[in-house]
Specification:
This protein is α+β, with helices and mostly antiparallel strands. The chain has 13 helices and 18 strands. The strands form three sheets. Strands 10, 11, 12, 13, 14, 15, 16, 17 and 18 form a nine-stranded antiparallel β-sheet that branches. A five-stranded parallel β-sheet has the order 3-2-1-4-5, with helices on both faces. The protein has a four-stranded antiparallel β-sheet with strand order 6-9-7-8, sandwiched between helices. A hairpin with a 2-residue loop joins strand 12 and strand 13. Helix 4 packs across helix 5. It starts with a strand and ends with a helix. The structure holds adenosine monophosphate.
Length: 370
């Protein structure tokens, strides 16, 4: 069976690397062969919205998936050819627009931030009056890794926020004074079977994920997260991996956003779980049985952002797994990650903090202040 992947970033690459041992084949669609996916599998080179190339992919593949949630839904609708699309486009459409995402959470009784759509300077005044300060103004579409966001703390910030973002449709929401950030990764098979990975405890800095530790074994929060994920999976008749990111405030989860795909906070599952999120995603969309999501010990994943440290010393570090995505360095760009797995949470934290202190000192200092 051949699986088409629209977008050949690191997520697509890790899907393919997980699927080859199952006897699956892959075909990417993205700019060129130098993309992370293009380095490990055949690629149709061109725009990801190119109808001709999408049609070719749909002819050659049984199922088409994506590794990026901002692919225009219209491009994927009514593809000529035989391919199914998974996850469903309705879930993709909901996740692409922060307003429809919030409405979906509300519809399904999933607690989320207070929010208002903002389409004009006057609407921003109204939103801030009703929701209050501090808050975050976000572009409804195409935001990622903290891009397209402006934190408003005082009335004088409104003009600057509007000047920065006012050209796009926006959403204003309250700034949540969270204690922690967690995410849940869930997977649903073609037969409707659902499995959950243990909760991830995430640390962001400047809007970018820096560190994930898992399992985060809080039973009450795990129940809330799984209830939310189950509702979304069933609502969309979903097939594949779905991620929800939450704030934890006063012991309760507040949904921030969902991703209809494998997720950076689940990279630890490659070495830290019986079956990785990437393998379970391709199993689900290929109609194969899901694998166990059990954690094997206690894992930490550290993102390598902007530039890769010299790998020589890190490859010699016992228990450390190195992932280089094969991308050109650029400030703020995710170039790779490291995972380590230890028998206990305390050992894992000791090891992770030692590594973090060397490769991402700013995050290490931020965590130590908490
Ligand atoms: P997002 O792109 O919406 O996932 O935001 C990236 C990061 O910015 C989040 O993981 C949080 O650390 C922070 N952030 C975004 N929205 C809020 C909010 N409403 N309240 C507090 N922190 C936020």
């Amino acid at each position: 069976m051949t699986i088409g992947i629209v977008g050949a970033g690191q997520l697509g690459r890790m899907m393919a690397l997980a699927g080859y041992p199952l006897g699956l084949e892959f075909l990417f669609l993205d700019r060129d062969a130098r993309t992370p996916g293009g380095q490990v599998g055949p690629i149709l080179a061109g725009e990801i919205t190119d109808r001709g190339l999408l049609g070719q992919m749909s002819q050659r593949c049984e199922v088409v998936t994506f590794d990026w949630e901002n692919i225009p839904v219209e491009a994927l609708e009514e593809l000529p050819g035989k391919a199914r699309i998974a996850p469903p486009l309705r879930a993709l459409a909901a996740a692409q627009d922060r307003l429809s995402e919030k409405r979906t959470f509300e519809l399904l009784g999933i607690p989320t931030t207070r929010y208002a759509a903002v389409d004009s300077r006057a609407a921003l005044d109204t939103a801030v009056r009703s929701i209050g300060l501090p808050g975050v103004l976000k572009t409804r579409r195409l935001g990622y890794d903290g891009k397209g966001q402006f934190v408003l703390r005082k009335p004088a910030d409104l003009d600057a926020a509007w000047a920065a973002l006012g050209k796009s449709p926006l959403l204003y929401e309250n700034l949540v004074p969270f204690d922690r950030e967690v995410s849940v990764i869930a997977v649903r098979g073609r037969d409707g079977r659902i499995a959950f990975y243990p909760l991830n405890l995430n640390v962001h800095r400047e809007g970018i994920l820096r560190l994930t530790r898992a399992p985060f074994g809080n039973a009450a929060l795990t129940r809330q997260a799984q209830r939310a994920a189950r509702r979304l999976l069933e609502h969309f008749d979903y097939v594949g991996v779905l991620t929800i990111e939450f704030f934890v405030a006063r012991g309760r989860l507040i949904a921030n956003e969902m991703a209809p795909r494998v997720h950076n906070s689940g990279h630890w599952t490659i070495e830290g779980a019986d079956t990785s999120q990437f393998e379970n995603h391709v199993r689900a969309i290929a109609g194969l049985p899901l694998g166990s999501t059990r954690a094997r010990g206690h894992a930490a994943m550290i993102n390598l952002i902007g530039e890769l440290p010299a790998r020589h010393a890190w490859l010699a570090e016992p228990g450390l797994h190195w992932h280089d995505y094969g991308k050109e360095p650029r400030p703020g760009r995710k170039l790779g990650h490291m995972t380590l797995v230890q028998p206990s949470a305390a050992q894992r934290d000791r090891h992770a903090f030692k590594v973090l202190n060397k490769v991402d000192r700013a995050t290490w200092l931020a965590i130590r202040r908490v």
